[in-house]
Structure formats: C-alpha cells, structure tokens
Write a structure and sequence with these properties.
Length: about 250
C-alpha cells in the first residue's frame, strides 16, 4: 500500500510564560486571550490557605519561599519570563517587597520576572499618570493597602470603589464591574485601575475606555503586557494605551 505523506510544517515554535497564580485563581481562560498564538502559559499555584480574601491572605500567598518553589516547578519547560499573577500579593507589603519578589523568582532560576503590581508601576510611569481612580473586589483594609502602594509610587488615588468580597471573585458579573468602574471615575483621574487577577474584565475594557475617554488598566492585561514586552512580542487584546507604551 502506497501512502504519501503531505508536506507538513510546524507546529509554530512555542515561547513560554511561567505563571505563578494564587491557589484560588479561576480565570485561566481570560489569560489566554491576552497572548498571541505562539505563546504558551505554564501555570503553578501557591499552596492552599484556608482564609478569606484579606490582608492575611495577601501576605500568605506572597511568601517568597512559595514563589521560589513555584518558579522551579515551571522551569523545566523553559519559560522566557515568570510572572507572579497576583495584585494584592504584590502590593500588600509595599514597593520594596514587590521588588524583592521579582528577585526571589529570578534567584530561583527564572530568566526574567514580573509581578502584577510591578507591571502597574511600569505602565503608570510610562503613561505619566499621577492621579488615578481604583476599583477592587477587596475589603476596605486591603484596598487601603493598594492606596498606600500607589502613594509610594507618587500616584494619588483620587477616587476608589471596593466590593468587599471574601471569595468567589471570579463570579462577579460584567454589569456589576462596569457599574463600579463608572462610579469610581473622577474628573481628575487620568486612568482607572481595576485590581485583582481573579476579576473578569476583558470584554469591558474597550467600551469603557470609549465611554470614559481614558485608559482602563486591568490586572491580567498589565501582567501579560509586561511579559510580552520583555519577550519583544506584539501586544494583543483591548486597551488603547497598550499601543502607546509598547
């Protein structure tokens, strides 16, 4: 029996991003929408902690030893950069601690490292934004910690909204999030930051930027932007500011 194979090419050469996620991340499908076809996401998680979303949880999931272990778990598949995909865990102890987390990831063997809050700092600097509004799904204490992190960066929080949730953040509807973003907007805000990598935002960004006439920055968007920027890859997904700073 003669069987002639067709000419096969591919698959497309894979490039990888290592992702260290908190144990409760439920939005992997949104992450994949932020990267081009040739990029694979290799996920590891921090250990389970039996506490609600809070200051305590943010401190537990940002333990640098846990991040080092998770980094080593993904190194075998050769990611070009490893991201700590957690907003609260990367802002809760301030700017210096955020920088220490990227160092811990690199010390564990990652070629490069980013955190969600570090990506926020980079984008705010490149946009020149010094007054912003924020919306979070957290309680008042954890939201206040974000305000303090921004103040350390020289960024003023001119308006703020928080949902006060202790869990199930990925279940919040687009309508609820959009209403809170619109409520959080302020005439003096140069941009709006929507915190938390577990809060769904992808399909809200473009219509809300159009309506408000200013950048709407979201946690997963920022983190994937920082990774792709280091990989010299094109930025995908909504957000007019992405093209301004890339």
């Amino acid at each position: 029996m003669d069987f002639s194979l067709p000419e096969f090419e591919g698959p497309l050469a894979q490039r990888g991003i290592g992702v260290i996620a908190p144990f409760d991340l439920a939005l992997e499908r949104e992450l994949w929408r932020w990267v081009p076809m040739e990029v694979s996401l290799h996920l590891a998680r921090t250990p389970y902690e039996p506490v609600p979303v809070s200051m305590e949880m943010a401190q537990l999931v940002s333990n640098s030893a846990h991040l080092a272990t998770a980094t080593r778990d993904v190194l075998h598949v050769e990611p070009e950069v490893v991201a700590y995909l957690c907003t609260s865990g990367s802002f809760v102890n301030g700017v210096d601690y955020e920088r220490s987390l990227t160092k811990a990831i690199c010390d564990a063997g990652a070629p490069d490292a980013v955190t969600t809050s570090g990506a926020l700092a980079e984008v705010l600097q490149q946009l020149g934004s010094r007054r912003i509004a924020v919306i979070t799904p957290y309680d008042a204490d954890l939201t206040g910690s974000l305000h303090r992190f921004l103040a350390e960066l020289g960024v003023e929080t001119v308006a703020s909204e928080h949902l006060g949730l202790g869990g199930g953040i990925w279940k919040v509807s687009y309508r609820t999030i959009a209403e809170r973003i619109l409520k959080a907007d302020h005439p003096d805000a140069e941009a709006i930051f929507v915190s938390c990598t577990n809060l769904p935002t992808y399909d809200l960004i473009e219509p809300l930027e159009t309506a408000l006439g200013k950048p709407v920055l979201t946690a997963n968007q920022l983190t994937m932007w920082a990774c792709l920027n280091r990989m010299r890859l094109p930025i995908v997904g909504p957000g007019n500011w992405l093209r301004e700073v890339s």
